[in-house]
């Protein structure tokens, strides 16, 4: 089978999304650590999605936003043209998780988001924390979240929690 024209472009984009979508921040935890990986489509361009995520994280210090999942504290570790890396520390300062998001723009203002959150200590059950770490940075008002700059519709197409990790969206809005 020979791919030509648009088929070749679409196949290349699919490969790019798949390759970008497998990126996780890593963990030095001994043995097992809880994690979650999500794939999300946002009805916005990726620069707006990335700006909203950064605004939420910056909003913690200014009081413009708080983490609805038990008031954790996020910080931006690094950023690239199509990647953001964050850290989230629980409100009791006991646990740290690292997050990596990658972004691919598609036509008509659609952004494909791939996110991965990993606990940095030995853990199995996480009460959906790694899932919520990710979700709280992209969810919109229709999901009960409070955007800072841009509100856009999102659709989660895949969630992949590790053994013992949860993926309950109702757990994310527990202050």
Automatic annotation (TrEMBL):
- Give yes or no: UniProt keyword Signal: yes
Signal peptide residue numbers: 1-21
Superkingdom assignment: Eukaryota
* Keywords tagged on the record: Signal
Under what name is this protein listed? Uncharacterized protein
